[in-house]
């Protein structure tokens, strides 16, 4: 894999953010962690995070996309969440926008 600018890993899966804004996932695919249709639609990511059973990506337009297991609403991104500049996450909880 070439042009990787960031790596995120937790639990049994990992993510790579490439320079072109695409995201690659590998490892355990339970809870649809490697959702190929969703990943193919992300071409403008600027940051990534990996939780125990979910992943998130911050897009260049300031919105956040999440996929995987929705434990404790970890993938339930509020529809009105915009203008996010950075993301982080804890093991099982929702991503924390900044």
Structural summary, described in words:
The structure is a single chain. This protein has 98 residues and is mainly β. It has 1 helix and 8 strands. The strands form 3 sheets. A 3-stranded antiparallel sheet has the order 1-2-3, with no helix packed on it. Strands 4-5-6 form a 3-stranded antiparallel sheet, with no helix packed on it. Strands 7-8 form a two-stranded antiparallel sheet. The longest helix has 6 residues.
Please tally the β strands and state the result: 8
Q: Low-confidence parts lasting 5 or more residues at pLDDT below 50?
A: none
Structural class: mainly beta
For the CA atoms, what is the radius of gyration?
A: 12 Å
Termini gap: 30 Å
Order of helices and strands, N to C? Answer: EEEHEEEEE
How many distinct helices? 1
Strand order of the largest sheet: 1-2-3
Choose one word for the global shape.
globular
Strand content: 35-45%
Q: What percent of the residues sit in helical stretches (DSSP H or I)?
A: under 10%
Q: Tell me about the largest β-sheet.
A: 3 strands, antiparallel
What does the average pLDDT come to?
88
């Amino acid at each position: 894999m070439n042009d990787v600018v960031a790596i995120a890993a937790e639990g049994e899966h990992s993510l790579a953010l490439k320079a072109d804004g695409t995201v690659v996932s590998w490892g355990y695919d339970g809870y649809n962690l490697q959702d190929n249709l969703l990943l193919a639609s992300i071409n403008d990511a600027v940051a990534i995070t990996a939780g125990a059973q979910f992943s998130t990506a911050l897009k260049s337009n300031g919105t956040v996309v999440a996929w995987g297991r929705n434990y404790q609403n970890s993938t339930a991104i509020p529809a009105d969440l915009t203008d996010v500049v950075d993301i982080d996450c804890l093991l099982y909880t929702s991503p924390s926008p900044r």
